[in-house]
Amino acid sequence: MSEFRTQLKIGLHTGIKKGWSSFVWICKIIVPVSFVAALIQWTGWLSQLDFLLHPLMSVINLPAAAALPIVVAITVSFYAGIAIIVVLPFSIQQIILIALFITIAHMLIAEGIVQHKSGLNVIKATLVRIGAAALSVFVVSQIFTDTSQSISLPASLASQTPFIEVLKGWAIDTLRLCGRIFLIIMLVMTALSASESLGWIKYLVKFFRPLMKILGLSDRAATMWVMGAGFGLLYGSAVIMEEAKKEDLTKEELEHLQISIGINHSIVEETGLFLALGVNPLWLLIPRFVAATIAVHGLRAIQYLKSKLFPK
Questions:
Q1: Is the model's pLDDT at 158 over the cut of 60?
Q2: What is the chain's Cα-based Rg?
Q3: Hey, which of 73, 94, 138, 269 has its CA 20 to 30 A from 282?
């Protein structure tokens, strides 16, 4: 019993230290990136991309107005994208398609940096997520009808919010986000470190081994996948970074993992938020799981062919 307590104490102490270090690191990314994104949104620069985004929306069978929540989710935050969806008169089918897009591709700058630091080039991560989002939406849109039908924007969206209000809203939202990240990171890191110290991690890996095989991932990626898929790239970044530092995975295995959780992450919270808007969770869970699986196996096939055609 005394040995159990000693190992538990060591694990908790280590987890608290790692959790705090990771929290500070992630805040250094979130605070400046979110501020710049909020500033860009306030200036109206995003509207300058209309000439490019509107034609792209038609390609994936969405109205031009869908560009607004998608671009805001990509550049500002996932939650800001949802806020815009709520105030626009989209049909339920249009909401499903927009939801699918932004659950795959959102906060690409902040989350891209996290992925870059733990195994996947930020440019590749961004291109993969946008490509997977566009293809997933296009495929699912074939099931629906008239999803490209245009809608009218409310007059309230055309007026510019005073900068002081934008600054206040940004500060409150950022504090809330950092607070959630702190709680989750500290709880997860202490629990993980304690489990590691007590030798319980092997059971987690064993339980998720069959799923890892389906997804095309290494068994050793189970812990990082659970954190990314369950908590998200930002909330799970502490575990992902710590596990990546151990160098248990090869460069290719880390890329496979990052592509998988880049497309399919935070499945509990994000799916739950859209459930409140009347979206059936299956429309979001199944396409993302399939897209992540196809992307990883596709990359594995390309890497295999490359090794055969161009052996080192």
A1: no
A2: 21
A3: 73
Q: What is the pLDDT of residue 101?
A: 97
| % helix, strand, coil for the chain, step of 5 | 80, 0, 20
CB 129 within 8 A of CB 104: yes
Instruction: Using alpha carbons, select from 257, 274, 282 the residue that is nearest to residue 85.
Output: 274
Return the top range by mean pLDDT from 47-51, 74-78, 81-85, 252-256. 252-256
Backbone φ/ψ region at 235: left (φ over 0), alpha (ψ -120 to 50), beta: alpha
Instruction: Tell which phi-psi region holds residue 298, choosing left (phi > 0), alpha (psi between -120 and 50) or beta.
Output: alpha
In the numeric block, which tokens belong to residue 33?
Answer: 């990136």
Q: Decide which of 44 and 60 is more confident.
A: 60
CA distance 135 to 292: 12
DSSP 200: -
* DSSP string covering 284-300: HHHHHHHHHHHHHHHHH
The Cα 301–Cα 29 span in angstroms is: 34
Task: Look up tokens 């979130």; give the residue.
Answer: 30
Residue 265 makes CB contacts below 8 A (sequence gap 6+) with: 228, 229, 232, 233, 236
Percent of the chain residues past pLDDT 70, beyond the cut: 80
Q: pTM for the full model?
A: 0.76
Going by C-alpha positions, the residue among 243, 259, 256 that lies closest to residue 213 is: 256
